[in-house]
Specification:
about 30% strand, GNAT_dom, 8-stranded mixed β-sheet, 2 domains, Aminopeptidase, 16 strands, protein-N-terminal-alanine acetyltransferase activity, alpha+beta, protein N-terminal-serine acetyltransferase activity, 11 helices
Length: about 375
């Protein structure tokens, strides 16, 4: 790719790197986020490394059919970051795009503007497909991908060597020449204000810091024995689930939340919405509570809060929830939240020791909740 005048984007300009960019390049790459998500980088990244990159690295990327540019402020020409593509497969018209933004320029939409600008140019001038790969916990980059018109395609297992001798899974996004480049709509948007609350309970997204609490909750026999599958989770599985919760939310597959006591802030349980059938507008909820918070109406309040959010902010029209036939307490929670018993499904779920168990299904429709209103007594 040959560019003379540069590429203009919204609030950014892509131009060639210059020798006077060396200090900003060194500062940008010598950053914890870069070390975390770009394992090939030397750590620390010194001025000498930056000089070598500008003297040799840039030209080698172009020589191999790729391209790399400085992201600059269009008014001041200040270096904000870098962007480019490599791993070009000419027979497929495919390449992989990557970028970095200096700590001094984050939070301004720089990455999204730069990715959109370079992607549009590359796909308009010969490439048919661009891929963008991110770590599961690099949700900032996943948000950039979606905002720049890249569609999530799946996960690639053990595709990137890490600094500890292991291999990391990456999520693959792609944009085609035929795609519009407009931001992709999300099946599950962020919570308004970052949380849901009725003044008694507060729901906030599950995150990496919740691993110990989640391991304790899901380690309770009465919780894991009624989960699907009915197996006690390992610490690794719980840690991974918490680390990947935001990525799953961005993918539109599920929204997992911690139920907390609004007064004390103490975690009391969890609730999740699983978007099983976007085509039909059906999702499922599930919840668990710590023993000390059971019988206080917290689960009912949480179920109503997540239902109100789903019906108001997403295309979900029908919420389902299942319980074991003998779990009268959970059935009472659902009834108080407005759900109606709809079906008795024999041998639907896997049970302990290779058995099968029956499932009692409850359903809540948007019009039911709006018509009846909250029922939080008791």
């Amino acid at each position: 790719m040959s560019i003379i005048a540069g590429i203009d984007g919204k609030g950014v300009r892509l131009r060639s790197f210059r020798s006077d960019d060396v200090e900003a390049v060194a500062a940008g790459y010598d950053d914890p986020l870069c070390f975390r998500f770009l394992p090939p980088l030397p750590a620390p990244f010194t001025l000498a490394h930056a000089e070598r990159f500008l003297a040799e690295g840039v030209s080698s990327i172009f020589a191999e059919g790729g391209a790399v540019f400085a992201i600059a402020d269009p008014q001041t020409d200040e270096l904000l970051g870098g962007i480019g593509f490599d791993k070009v497969v000419p027979s497929r018209g495919q390449a992989e795009i990557g970028y970095w933004v200096g700590p001094w320029a984050r939070g301004r939409g720089v990455a999204t503007a730069a990715v959109r600008a370079l992607s549009t140019h590359a796909l308009d001038t010969g490439l048919a497909r661009l891929e963008l790969l991110t770590h599961w916990d690099n949700t900032m980059s996943q948000r950039v991908a979606l905002a720049a018109g890249f569609r999530r395609e799946g996960a690639r297992r053990a595709v990137l060597p890490d600094r500890d001798g292991g291999r990391a899974d990456l999520i693959a996004f792609a944009r085609l020449a035929s795609d519009s480049g407009q931001a992709l709509p999300r099946l599950l948007p962020d919570l308004p204000g970052g949380e849901l609350t009725d003044g008694v309970v507060r729901l906030r997204p599950l995150g990496p810091g919740d691993a110990d609490f989640t391991l304790h909750l899901r380690g309770l026999p009465e919780v894991w024995q009624t989960s699907v599958p009915p197996q006690e989770p390992s610490a690794h599985e719980i840690r991974q689930r918490c680390e990947r919760a935001e990525a799953q939310w961005l993918a539109g597959t599920r929204a997992e939340l911690v139920i907390t006591d609004a007064a004390s802030g103490a975690p009391a349980g969890e609730i999740a919405l699983f978007y099983q059938e976007p085509v039909t507008g059906q999702a499922m909820i599930g919840y668990s509570m710590l023993p000390s918070f059971r019988g206080r109406g917290f689960a009912t309040r949480a179920a109503q809060l997540i239902a109100l959010w789903a019906f108001a902010e997403t295309d979900v029209h029908r919420l389902v929830a299942g319980t074991l036939p003998e779990n009268v307490g959970s059935q009472r929670v659902l009834e108080k939240a407005g759900f109606r018993r709809e079906a008795y499904l024999r041998s639907r779920l896997p049970g302990p020791g290779g058995t099968r168990v029956d499932d009692v299904e409850f359903v809540l429709l948007a019009e039911d909740l709006l018509a009846e209103g909250p029922r939080l007594d008791g």
